[in-house]
Amino acid sequence: MEILGIPLPALLGQLLLGLVNGSFYAILSLGLAVIFGLLGIVNFAHGALYMVGAYVAWIALERLGLNYWAALALAPLVVGAFGAAIERTLLNKLYKLDPLYGLLLTFGLALVVEGLFRDRFGVSGQQVAVPDLLQGATDLGFMVLPNYRGWVVFASLVLCGMTWYVIEKTSLGATLRAGTENPQLVQAFGIDVPKLVTLTYAGGAALAGLAGVLAAPVIQLTPLMGSNLIIVVFAVVVIGGMGSILGAILTGLVLGLIEGLTKVFYPEASNIVVFVIMAIVLMVRPAGLFGKEH
User: Fold this and answer.
1) Is residue 64 a part of any domain in this protein?
2) What distance in Å separates the CA atoms of residue 27 and residue 151, rounded to the nearest whole number?
3) Domain range enclosing 58
4) Does 144 fall in a domain?
5) What's the pLDDT tens digit per position in 234-275?
6) pTM over 0.70
């Protein structure tokens, strides 16, 4: 069976690979949406935090002798702690200023972090091996899916679902939203709002670090791996609606699928299709698909 001259197995296989890319888009855009939605910060350092997470995993595996699962737990903690330090020492000075200052600060911070890693590790790249438990592939009939890529999709969906539930459906999420919308009122109830803000940024940073660990066995690690991806992820967030948690998740997954389809029918446009969709969405709905009109 063929669709527009493309064999159905090839089409389904490309869609599944697009879902893998969409899983990375979803996790990274989720972290960006959490930070912007709750703190109002356009976090350009997110790509650098993603890169740091991947390198922490590589160091844990190659230098410390830990296994993949230990690195998967360690990297988000390290990156989250780094994010907390950034918020406490730099970003908390800018909350009463124009958001442009936060954007410029995080952009400069990303350049500094990338420069430090480039100086320490070079630009040739590092490789992380797939863990033994996830090696091999599964025959799905229409394609042979590497087990690790299946794990990436599963882990991403679980992580995104848990994050959405915590922020939208729990008392902790309600406190976080209230603390950013009316900090004086929340502080009057004895809640340490500055600590909540720090934990929020640290949580968004940890999501980026976790995405870096998941990506490490799939791609080659370089200090510029974050900057190459962050522009696409920002486009995903804009399409979904800045600050929309659900929009970030759904848009990331759907755009990964659309990108995969584009590689089948019109490969030359696969690198720009996300930006074309962003332009169309902004013309029709400037707040994004799931964003709130102001």
Assistant:
1) yes
2) 14
3) 22-223
4) yes
5) 888 889 888 788 888 899 899 888 988 888 788 888 888 989
6) yes
